[in-house]
Design goal:
- The chain is 28% helix and 41% strand.
- The protein is an alpha+beta fold.
- The protein has one domain: Cyclic Phosphodiesterase, Chain: A (Alpha-Beta Complex), CATH 3.90.1140.
- A 5-stranded antiparallel β-sheet has the order 2-6-5-4-7, sandwiched between helices. It has a 4-stranded antiparallel β-sheet with strand order 3-1-8-9, covered by helices on one side.
- The model has no long low-confidence stretch (mean pLDDT 93).
Length: 186
């Protein structure tokens, strides 16, 4: 199975992301917009691993959220990887209870390391991918300012009540995401 651990964006917040994507697609028509049913904030991508690892991953998530209560994050800004001016991926950064997101992420990394699984050591930026670009394009200052305008609207808080273990299943060049487990915050 191809595993990842993420915060799923609740259905009541999806229209906000639809609005962001609609405006984004108008400004950058070649952008491949992320399917709304795949909108999430990844905490750890584990990749292809044996199916029997599922229960150990669930246990890692449970241990990572002990004594962590539900919290909120809010869409705050638009950015890109590797950077906004030469983006392959466009994403929405969040503000709010980021300390909880970072703490959960570190606990998950510790659990994955204890299982001798690869851990991404790059600086973690809590983000929600909204589009990918087939080829890296240059976003000049004028386009960057237009992208900034997208994020000036008022956004609702995203209530985080659980962490999910997903599998990513390849299907004719695309991937679907299946929930394998949902661990509620206390």
């Amino acid at each position: 199975m191809r595993f990842f651990i993420a915060l799923e964006i609740p259905s009541e917040n999806i229209p906000q992301f639809q609005s962001i994507q609609d405006k984004l697609h108008t400004l950058i028509p070649q952008a491949r917009i992320t399917d709304l049913d795949k909108i999430h904030l990844t905490l750890a991508f584990i990749g292809e691993q044996p199916d029997n690892l599922k229960e150990k991953l669930i246990e890692i998530i449970r241990n990572s959220v002990l004594d962590i209560s539900p919290f909120e994050v809010t869409p705050a800004y638009l950015d890109g990887f590797p950077n906004i001016h030469h983006a392959n991926v466009l994403w929405v950064g969040v503000k709010g209870d980021i300390d909880k997101v970072l703490l959960i992420r570190e606990y998950i990394k510790d659990g994955l390391s204890a299982l001798h699984l690869p851990v991404d050591e790059r600086r973690f930026i809590p983000h929600i991918t909204v589009a990918k670009l087939n080829e890296q394009i240059f976003i000049d200052r004028k386009l960057e300012m237009e992208l900034e305008k997208i994020m000036t609207m008022s956004f609702d808080h995203i209530n985080i009540n659980s962490i999910k273990l997903f599998e990513s299943v390849a299907n004719e060049g695309f991937h679907s995401h299946n929930t394998l487990a949902e661990i509620n915050l206390v």
